[in-house]
Amino acid sequence: MAKTRILITRHAKTAWNKERRIQGRTDIPILPESKEETKIFAQSIKHHNIKTIYTSTLTRTIQTGKIIQETLDIENLVSIDDLKERSYGKFEGKLWEEITDKFNKIEMDKEKARKTGVEHGEEFQKRIINALTKISNNHPNETILVVCHGGNIRSLLKFLDKDKPKTHIPNNSLFILEFENGKLTLIDSPNT
Questions:
Q1: Confidence (pTM)
Q2: For burial by CB atoms within 10 Å, which of 37, 46, 70, 153 has the most?
């Protein structure tokens, strides 16, 4: 049976991460000081023998992916739109503390979500799972790295364990999954 090992990490820290602002699809670059942290992170995953790096098409994941690519001398880096962070519509740029109650009410109603430009959670989760499935099917018996966003990882963790409470996803943290027979399985995470 073909098995794909998927390493997933959240992009390096941005100014908006430091300020606890909602980034969503807003294209924010990583902080200069995050580059060295990302090189250290790359060295810590070197033993995984990564064949290909996938990123979203947002600058913060591409920058993070390129630092890892250069540090580990990995030939292939592919950016795909389906790995983009969730759209938070009118909430992007705001502080989480300012909008949590409003956002949670909108999140419960697909129509309200669409009207405010928010990608509904179920649609977002489906997009992420489909992207990971396609990627995995293209890399049987290989190890790949996916550099994406905190929202992507939270949604993935919720898919894998419906009872899992929402959790903070640190920048440059590592989650290890396996894809086999059409099924994703969490092997290791910083929270286990």
A1: 0.94
A2: 153
